[in-house]
Amino acid sequence: VDQKRGQYIETPGVLNIMKFAIPAVGVWLCGPLLSLIDTSTVGLLSGTAQQAALGPAVAVADYSALLLVSRYLHACIYTCVLLKLFITSL
User: Residue 39 and residue 51: Cα distance in Å, rounded?
Assistant: First the structure.
């Protein structure tokens, strides 16, 4: 119960949770799947030295992408908070 308004807060149902969870799991599985495809392609077309260099290169690329996305999200959230503070102060 919402204490301020005296109304019930609607909770999401199982269907709504599944609509969110299934694509989230798919996104989570994309990184390992692409790494597996890269490894198999380099293994078929190149030698062992190129395949050995692929592991660290994939790790650097994955973590740098995660870093950029997290910095972008932090900047968006910070901007939204500042906008809300600015609008409420008017």
Answer: 7
| 8-19 CB burial, b ≥16 within 10 A, e <16 | eeeeeeeeeeee
Tell me the pLDDT tens digit for each residue of 55-84: 888 888 888 888 888 888 888 888 988 888
Phi-psi region of 6 (alpha: psi -120 to 50; beta: other; left: phi over 0): left
pLDDT digits (tens, 9 = 90+) for 4-52: 666 776 778 888 888 888 888 887 788 888 888 888 899 899 888 988 8
Contact call for residues 51 and 43 (beta carbons, < 8 A)? yes
Tokens of 89: 């102060």
3-state secondary structure (DSSP) of residue 6:
coil
Asked if residues 12 and 32 have their Cβ atoms less than 8 Å apart, the reply is no
Q: Which of 24, 31, 37 is nearest to 59 (CA)?
A: 31
